[in-house]
Amino acid sequence: MKNxxxxxxxxxxxNLPAQNWQNICSPGITFYQxxxxxxxxxxxxxxxxxxxxxxxxxxxxxxxxxxxxxxDTTGGSFLGSVVRKKPAGLFQFCxxxxxxxxxHTVETTGYSWKFFSDPAGNYIEAKINAKILDSICGTTDxxxxxKFQAKDNNGNNIPHxxxxxxxxxxxxYGLTKMMELFSAPMSPTMYTLIGKASPNIGLQNLTWNExxxxxxxxxxxxxxxEWDTWWDVYYYTIxxxxxxxxxxxxxxxxxxxxxxxxxxxxxxxxxxxSYDTLTQVVTxxxxxxxxxxxxxxxxRYGWDAPIFSRIYPDYISRQSHEKIFGVQYSNGCWHPxxxxxxxxxxxxGLGRTRYEWGEVFLxxxxxxxxxxKGTEEWGTPVATSCNTLVPVEFSNTxxxxxxxxxPNPAKEAITVQIDDFKPGSTMEFFLVDxxxxxxxxxxxxxxxxxxxxxxxxxxxxxxxxxYIWKLVGENGTVTGKLILE
Length: 485
Known about the structure:
By secondary structure, the chain is mainly beta.
């Protein structure tokens, strides 16, 4: 993997291109975070100038809980699904009721206007309260503070949750403090700008290269739990990076990993132990293979749509990307899923830090409980080292068959690689689901061996989730876990 060191030279406001207080719907992605740590985003997907002199900016659709049976999938990102820019720096936004919210950007201190009006004639007044110098993602810019006050149709002050709240508008960076507009004006929760792509400041979109960026000596500890109606099994695992080989021209990095594991089962012998040195191959689309799904973005997969979120800081100021169970379409609307599904988290520099999969009577969870990267440590280790997790007689004994199955998780195909494969060997590869049913088998006659998971002979038997793979040969049997996405 080719590591790129990007040095960002923050210009002073007077050196930046003039934005005239209107850099609200800039290209790329903008991230906002509230005091509770929740991140929302705005992404400019397209621009429509067919209504000149007005310009329409369109962003991605999102999944919103409306507290009813059906979820809303049309509301748009942080600034809504569409923003209308009119002449003289006037912007119009829409909330979930299709009410119009108006923002004047170029007026001076003391100017006021109707930010929102209801059918009864009551309205929320917005007033440019002051112009200040403010710190924004490590730089400084001129900022207008805009304060809210609700009034009745006679102009008298009336109670409202927004009273006394204010937003901030930066000359070069747009809205630096703002409410989420889907629920405006009834939600007083304010979000602060934490990253913007144009100009490039603060938090940027997470790349897969950042997620799987390990260094020699990095150590990751997991506790996994597998269960069904009659069975509870726990796995305690340590993975330690022993070597790293990069192939920049192939967008690929190969890690050598020390792997050790204790498996606890309900009956005798109660403990099983595994120790091995594994090869993990990570291939990227490019050096800038960004994670495409943004917070609460509506991305439909057939009759299902997962819900995505972004957390920062997490795991000692590391950005995490989450996929949770999402919504399903039936009876004419989108609603929470009927059954438990698949959920996971990936984190910058740590790989996959959480995985959950299950149905009504069976399931599997995997959580990172500890990591060490250089001098940085987080969590509680499952053991001080492989030597304490796994007895010496196991850690000093290598398996007769050494096999690597990758990528894992897998989508379309997997490669089975067997060390020291001898032509003419008799071997079979199996996939077994968590009901114990064999869903696929094939003879292995070479190494590496490619298996297309979505060929006609396989696709009908497989679904997303967790499987056990098993390789049976003349010298023994090796098993492992495989996640299909």
